[in-house]
Amino acid sequence: MCAKETTNFKRLTPEEWENAWQQHWKKAQLDYELPINKSEEHKFLSEKRTPEKEKERLERITQEFEMGFKKLGKLGPAVTIFGSARFKPGEPYYELSRETGKAFAKAGFTVLTGGGPGAMEAANRGANEAGGPNYGLNIILPKEQAPNPYVTESFEFNYFFIRKVMLVKYSCAYIVMPGGLGTLDELFEAATLIQCNKIGPFPLILVGGKFWKGLRDFVAFMAEEGVFSPEEIGFSRIVETPEEAIEMVLAGLPQDFKESLNPL
Length: 264
Known about the structure:
Layout: H1 14-25, H2 40-46, H3 51-72, E1 78-82, H4 92-106, E2 110-113, H5 119-130, E3 134-139, E4 153-157, H6 160-169, E5 174-176, H7 181-195, E6 204-207, H8 209-224, E7 237-239, H9 242-251, H10 255-259
Parallel strand pairs: 1-2, 1-5, 2-3, 3-4, 5-6, 6-7
Helix pairs in contact: 4-5, 4-9
Family: Belongs to the LOG family.
Enzyme class: hydrolase
GO biological process, one term: cytokinin biosynthetic process
């Protein structure tokens, strides 16, 4: 399944990029940030960091880690599927994510997502339709992120970094669908951990060659500028179909791990 052709794609000039930054990003308070009175980040930056307050924060962090370990520690072999929260049912990338979730569930994997709408919902929906277990690790945000109705169970996190630890710790592969800043954050964190030998072997797979072409071209440009070495350029595999992604994941698993899978 392929995305529809984009016929009016327009590359931004430096001036257009600057104008967009001035209009949307220069503001001290963006309209989609967490409300000030509920934001842990705002409290962290604005309040005096006394030892007592730091201890309270550490306790909250520890409790959230403990919750994640308790809830996810007994999962079977799992893959994490990332992607944009903005795709709608019937759109090409939504349906591609749905087929990907379904295919991995049928292959015997538990499907993990960020638990929200869009590509995350689609992956959970596909796994649900296949009859496979799937979980949403939801982050509390004012827009776009509410638990979708297809998860077997949803776990709520306040801290992005704890949530990402859980998605890495309990997954044997990252499957990255087309997405925006949040998806790129998760993609590059995984790539950095692999590059620095903090995790691995760990398949990192991008689905949708047309969408990821721009990333591939930008990495080539960065290599020309000297910030990528030749062996770091292909840090992720780009595939077109869920079947290709499954084949790659299975190829890298130990035999006893493969035998623990229960295909549906």
